[in-house]
Design brief:
Number of strands of chain B: 5
CATH architecture of chain B: 2-Layer Sandwich
Strand content of chain A: 25-35%
Mean pLDDT of chain A: 96
Strand content of chain B: 25-35%
Structural class of chain A: alpha/beta
Structural class of chain B: alpha+beta
Helix content of chain B: 10-25%
Bound molecules: flavin-adenine dinucleotide, iron/sulfur cluster
Low-confidence stretches of chain B: none
Number of helices of chain B: 2
Oligomer: heterodimer
CATH architecture of the largest domain in chain A: 3-Layer(bba) Sandwich
Mean pLDDT of chain B: 93
Number of domains of chain A: 3
Distance between the termini of chain A: 43 Å
Radius of gyration of chain B: 11 Å
Order of helices and strands of chain B: EHEEEHE
């Protein structure tokens, strides 16, 4: 029997790579192993409208296509280790799966607050559907919600909780919400708009301990102040899920390092021909910007990296004419993200965090506006509140930096 | 052969990501709202499927 392509992680990246393999002509067996009990679903709504409305798998599940009907989905099963010499992975039931090629799509998990009195109910993070279901139940009108972290997810949850009638306080070490990567001017404006809706910000502040016996009743701040709290949401960044690759020769320092074909790189710098990484967990250099490998936690990355693997691995497994010349094609996806907070629709392209100079290039800061992000005078990103056509018009310029 | 395209306008947030994948089908109008062509030649299917993949709200459907 031909050995299957094994995908570890059955979320957006896992689904998209299965689809891409089929699209690029691979007709052999595919096994996708994921530890969540659900078929692949869309995460961004979990901090936005789904959290405000009905939270169910049905509301966020990805449509599945006929081409991937015969994928063997092994759900509710965690992969615990990999043996890249013998080409197998082992799952939490002790079962071993041999593979012809391995695709890592294990994403991230939230960092959690470490405090002495941490073993309390009422602590939440938002990554999975189950997280969102748990948080939704706690967001009742009048609930005192403390959000630790003022990045995109923290701000989105703040807006949604406020709309649901909660009393919301955001606590974060930075000077302004989402100041990295948006920059001070836009960050201040976003803070102003949140405050106008009744969200309170305690910036340059952090939580040193929790108060309560069985449940969170309050938080202790480093300023000495204490806040009453029924619901604590921790939105302080994430860790790459790479523990299952420990003991292999793959470079897993903060994500899985890959080359431009998404093939995993060993700690000695050589390339694995049949181990790939995609999505949030992949760390790769993007020729648009430079040669620095980065993880990019944007929603378009699973789909774009999955297509690249479909192209490369599809050609290889089919011994297609364009193998191995596909490796020479340059893969340079334009990062794109969006965020919804109250009436703000934020849309961005590029890597804003690289900028050394940020300028308002259209509109007015109090209303709809577009900012350009420049590194050494070259635009590396664009971000707007509203004015989507204007934001979009810069995408091609950013993409063309690669050539 | 033609395909029928449907966008759930109660879900669509007008991000216009679909425009890059299938510019013959999707566009943003002067008010930055999505407009689309509901019927197209089958040759557009791959582009529309790519648009389905990149739609953040998963609002696009091909009605077969
Ligand atoms: C609340 C929220 C809001 C977001 N909003 C936006 C947004 O507005 N815009 C934007 O651009 N991006 C947003 N993102 C980011 C976007 O959702 C991610 O980039 C995307 O989900 C990454 O997909 P992935 O398949 O790479 O990883 P994931 O979706 O993280 O999937 C990885 C899967 O692998 C599983 N897994 C992990 N380890 C193992 C193992 N050992 N064995 C088996 N399975 C395993 C995990 O349980 C998970 O199901 C948001 C993310 C979250 C959580
Ligand atoms: S990508 Fe989806 S949400 Fe965005 S404009 Fe197109 S249909 Fe609407």
């Amino acid at each position: 029997m031909t050995k299957p392509v094994v995908i570890v992680g059955a979320s957006m990246g896992g689904l998209r790579v299965a689809e891409a393999l089929r699209r690029f002509g691979y007709a052999g067996p595919i096994t996708a192993i994921g530890d969540e009990p659900y078929a692949p679903y869309n995460r961004p709504p979990l901090s936005k409208e789904v959290l405000a409305k009905e939270v169910s798998h049905e509301a966020v599940a990805f449509a599945q296509r006929p081409a991937t009907e015969d994928v063997n989905w092994v759900l509710g099963t965690r992969v615990v280790s990999a043996d890249v010499d013998h080409k197998t992975v082992t799952d939490s039931n002790g079962e071993t799966h041999a593979y012809s090629a391995l695709i890592a799509a294990t994403g991230l998990r939230p960092k959690r607050l470490q405090v002495p009195n941490g073993e309390l109910a009422g602590r939440h993070a938002v990554r999975t559907l189950d997280d969102a279901i748990g948080l939704r139940a706690a967001l009742v009108p009048g609930a005192r919600v403390v959000i630790l972290g003022a990045g995109f997810i923290g701000c989105e949850v703040a807006a949604t909780a406020r709309k649901l009638g909660c009393e919301v306080t955001v606590v974060a070490p930075g000077a302004h919400p989402i100041v990295r990567p948006l920059g001070v001017e836009l960050a201040k404006e976003i803070q102003r708009r949140h405050e106008a809706e009744g969200v309170r910000f305690l910036m340059k502040t952090t939580i040193t301990d929790l108060i309560g016996t069985a449940r969170v009743e309050g938080v202790q701040l480093d300023s000495g102040e204490q806040l009453d709290c029924d619901v604590l949401v921790e939105a302080i960044g994430s860790h790459a899920n790479t523990e299952w690759l420990e003991g292999t020769d793959i470079d897993i320092a903060d994500g899985i390092l890959t080359d431009n074909a998404m093939r995993a790189i060993r700690t000695d710098g050589t390339v694995h021909e049949d181990v790939f990484a995609i999505g949030d967990v992949a760390k790769f250099a993007n020729p648009i910007f430079d040669e620095v490998a980065r993880r990019v936690e944007h929603w378009n990355i699973p789909t774009d990296t999955a297509k690249r693997v479909g192209q490369v691995l599809g050609a290889k497994l089919n011994s297609a004419e364009n193998w191995p010349s596909v490796l020479d094609e340059q893969f340079a996806p334009v990062p794109s993200f969006w965020s919804d907070q109250f009436e703000m629709h934020i849309l961005a392209f590029g890597l804003l965090a690289l900028a050394d100079d940020i300028k308002l290039i259209a509109g007015e800061i109090e209303g709809d506006c577009v900012f350009g992000y420049y590194r050494a005078g070259t635009m590396v990103g664009v971000c707007g509140i509203g004015l989507r056509s204007t934001v979009q018009s810069y995408r091609a310029a950013i993409g063309s930096l690669a050539s | 052969m033609t395909i029928k395209i449907d966008v759930d306008m109660t879900k669509c947030q007008h991000y216009g990501q679909c425009v890059f994948e299938a510019p013959n089908i999707f566009r943003l109008n002067n008010d930055d709202k999505l407009e689309y062509t509901a019927e197209a030649d089958d040759s557009e299917r791959a582009n529309v499927e790519a648009a389905i993949d990149v739609c953040p709200m998963q609002a696009i459907f091909i009605v077969d």
